[in-house]
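REQUEST ID: PR-0412
SUBMITTED BY: lab tech R.K.
PRIORITY: routine
TASK: structure prediction, single protein chain
INPUT:
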Amino acid sequence: MKRLLNTLYVTSPNRYLSLDGENVVISEKNEEVGRVPLHNLEMIVTFGYTGASPALMGACAGRNIGLVFLSGNGRFIARVVGEAYGNVTLRKEQYRRSEQKEESLAIARNCILGKVYNSRWILERAARDYAMRLDVEKLRNKSGFLASSLTKIRNCRSAGELLGLEGEAASVYFSVFDDLILQQKEDFHFSGRNRRPPTDEVNAMLSFAYTLLTSMCASALETVGLDPYVGFFHTDKPGRKSLALDLVEELRSVMADRFVLTQINLKTIRKEGFTKKENGAVVMDDNTRKIFLTAWQKKKQEMITHPFLEEKVEWGMIPFVQAMLLARHLRGDLEEYPPFFWK
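STATUS: complete
OUTPUT:
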């Protein structure tokens, strides 16, 4: 249980929420484990299926306090809303900005700044931590290119230019991704990003991790009342969660890429856990997928100090914090959207 940005997050799956006067009461096995005054809250987010009392749902609806239910894995289930709910105004502002080139570009630019910044620090940290095993000069050269890209991204004035800079930076970053595989080199190779379908074990894991991260980001956006299908960097496309993909960009390297590298380098995942289909697609078997998901859930529980809030949060909460910050920017509470800068 944690309060963050006037939002109560109940992350333990076996906790039940109820109402006592003007307080939300959190219980587990019929024993109270905490209570928070309702007047201090803008939203309650609960992970799991235990539920909440009708009295609390009614109180939240009457006070315009969002009450959001997610699965234990973070998949969006439902949001309790009252007769009038402020999210319609938020979504209208989201739609308006998505149609305004300059305003849309400002948010997209910050998302890509976060992506390139974080990609650069993946390389910098590897050069620092494994100086005796890696070509440090090579990594530093690539890092220097990404640093210069940050300046160009800050100054770019069109969506097309931003797309080109993002693609160029991603190509440079992935050009040394194989170097970061320090163990099981004979079994795991990365020669470039491929997908639909992935044709090697590393890309199969990256695609799966990106899918998990996209689901987290979509749930986070639904939680704060934003439309995950209307983005600023990714354009509208039927069935594509464009805004979720915008958030994924800045978190991709630090939450997904690092995780995949860790599973390989710790030898948690083995080559024997993959099979190749007739169409060339490489997929994980059921046991390997279970190992992957178990490690992913464990990673989400690790703590990190959020660079903008300067508060300790779980890694799994980062998409929710970023979604909240984006919503606050769209409401006018923040001058610009603050991307997640990891270091």
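NOTES: The chain has a mean pLDDT of 89.
REVIEWED BY: pending
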